[in-house]
Amino acid sequence: MMHVFPRTFTMPMQRGERAATASAEPLTSAAYISLRREAAGLSIKEVAGMLARNADEVAHALDLIYALETSGNTARRPETLEALRSIFPFDPDVYRQLATDPANSHPRICRGCGCSHWDPCSSDEHGACAWATDTACTACLPDTAPVECCQ
Questions:
Q1: pLDDT digit string, tens, across residues 128-143
Q2: 116 bridge partner residues
Q3: Residue 18 burial (CB count, 10 A)
């Protein structure tokens, strides 16, 4: 017997799709951490495994990462950000700015990968990325000509 279930999920968007369809609304510190982790090609479980010192700490590390990637939560200690930064690249100052400063003073951040002027994407082939649109870098939208940076 075949069971048919309604489609209750959607496939995750790729970086370029996410960047192309993103609004310019303020980004949260939680979304920034998530974008940077995903841009590094890491799952929450992989990061938790690298963050934990032993098998007993993996569950706690998972809880921490899920909490940090949930809007409304922020890291309390600089050591937490430094530990995550040792696993995947992001800028703790950008994180703090998103967490504490008013939206009109937030840095410009790519909605596809989370890069900014202070932590751009880079590759051996193309060097550092540039802004393709107000919300996307040329690494996420490679077929788009760079635009002048306003920030």
A1: 888 888 888 888 888 7
A2: 109, 119
A3: 19
Taken as a whole, the chain contains a residue count of: 151
Q: Indicate if the pLDDT at residue 11 is higher than 60.
A: no
Cβ-count burial of 105 within 10 angstroms (0-12 exposed, 13-18 middle, 19+ buried)?
A: exposed
**Of 79, 88, 82, 69, the residue nearest 30 (C-alpha):** 69
HSE at residue 30, side-chain half, CA atoms within 13 A, is 11
Task: Count CB neighbours of 77 within 10 A.
Answer: 8
Please state the domain extents for the chain: 24-137
Which of 111, 123, 110 lies closest to 149, judged by CA?
A: 110
Tokens of 41: 């090609």
pLDDT tens digit string along 80-116?
Answer: 999 999 999 999 999 999 999 999 999 999 999 999 8
